[in-house]
TrEMBL record, chains A, B:
This enzyme's EC code(s): 4.2.1.-
GO MF entries: lyase activity
Protein name (Swiss-Prot/TrEMBL): Putative hydro-lyase CLOACE_01280
Gene3D superfamilies: PSTPO5379-like, PSTPO5379-like domain
Stored SUPFAM superfamilies: PSTPO5379-like
InterPro entries documented for this protein: D-Glu_cyclase (IPR009906), Putative_hydro-lyase (IPR038021), UPF0317 (IPR016938)
Family: Belongs to the D-glutamate cyclase family.
Record keywords: Lyase
């Protein structure tokens, strides 16, 4: 199923007509990760993202209590336009919900962060295989031994997503994705997974394992799960995020995020 | 006078050996605008900058009470490494000082913002004239009729800097500066000043008037004075900024801010 634009997709999600993952919905529109935090954590989290723009590229921030992402989706509503949300208390997942209005308060600050789904279309257009799409799986994600720059109470490891490809396509993948600095940009590593602390490429920390064919190398991009990893280490008393794969669909066309 | 690198320049400034404007000091190192605000204003100001990245490109933010810009100058000290600071109370300039230690508190949040001085070297390298440098003046700056996107308590007009040049160099100037998105990037306008609300090009709101020769057109870039204009409209009870032309010199090489 696909909607004709982001606004229509958000409307259907808001009405409860779509509760599944969002990849492929509203073709060409940028999808975003959501993090909602109480005010007391917001400035430190914002600085954390500012210092680690590659894994944590901020697309939009709403002032305390506001739920309209006025930069990326002026008709959107943070509280209802995502098919599934996760509610965390003291680091523990306590509930998955399709609407967060009952949890909303004037104290909450919402962040929308770029997502690598955005550049997958550009990779496909360049004839680079997207294995997890071919195999109908979630992208494999790994916790690395690369520490993010800490900020205030937040610190954590960089999480990466991985897409395997023939070695002679790696440079093309670098070229294509470096055009998208607001959605993780160029890969941070390719080749030996151990060099970034990944012991077993077949056991991702998040998402699904995918086939790496003979002659292919794994290519690693900074991943939007990184801010969530930092949040989970800090264990704030309250956090809301999207559920994995259930993203906020913005009005920003993917190509508008390309540099050239 | 010129120092061999940013660290040496900051050291001399810290020791009180240099109290004049900084353009030309520590050749090749990025200079930054400083804004220091109490915690209660910091999140809204940060969101204001995030929504208006062209005039307000953030290079570094220090957590409340911290004065080390760990991303851009890990050996720096926000409190002493600028030759001249301005202290504002309730929107009024109350003092100019060479050190802000006596004003420092755990409640203060510091922002370093990109400055168009950074791309002037690249313009010169492309044989584009920099009139205010030729005439040994400060760059002319104007308040436009373009409103920034508001955020929380902050709102204000975009301020622009202007550099006149022969019409056939404008495209080159656009190409050169679009490589530097973190220091205002490509011009926001060129040609008729009235189209952006500037009534008299010979009467800048800040800086000095410069000669526009026969056959030249004015080219306008978003300017780092914009966040100060927004702050002055809000009149916070307390703000510290650098004094015009007296910038913070970071360890970031200007070329490191170029996209390619």
């Amino acid at each position: 199923m696909e909607f004709k634009n982001a606004k229509e997709a958000r409307q259907k999600i808001r009405e409860g007509m779509w509760t599944k993952p969002t990849p492929g919905l509203a073709y060409g529109y940028t999808q975003a990760n959501l993090v909602v935090l109480p005010y007391k954590y917001a400035l430190d989290f914002f600085i954390f993202c500012q210092r680690n723009t590659k894994p944590c590229p901020i697309l939009d921030v709403c002032e305390p209590g506001k739920y309209t992402p006025i930069v990326t989706a002026p008709t959107g509503d943070i509280r209802s336009d995502i098919p599934k949300y996760r509610i965390y208390k003291n680091g523990n997942l306590v509930e998955e919900v399709t609407d967060i209005k009952k949890y909303w308060s004037e104290d909450l600050v919402s962040f929308l962060l770029g997502c690598s789904f955005t550049f997958e279309k550009a990779l496909e257009d360049a004839n680079i295989p997207i294995r997890h799409i071919e195999e109908n799986k979630n992208v494999p994600m790994y916790i690395t031994n690369i520490e993010c720059k800490p900020a205030g109470m937040f610190n954590g490891p960089m999480v990466v997503s991985m897409r395997p490809m023939p070695k002679d396509l790696v440079q093309k993948a670098i070229d294509v994705t470096s055009r998208f600095p607001q959605v993780h940009g160029a890969p941070i590593h390719y080749g030996d997974p151990k060099k970034i602390g990944i012991e077993d490429i077949n056991k991702p920390d998040f998402g699904d394992s995918v086939t790496i064919k003979e002659g292919e190398v794994p290519v690693f991009w900074a991943c939007g799960v990184t801010p969530q990893a930092a949040i989970m280490r800090v264990k704030p008393d309250f956090v809301i995020t999207h559920s994995p794969g259930h993203m906020f669909i913005t009005d920003i066309k993917e190509n508008d995020l390309a540099l050239f």
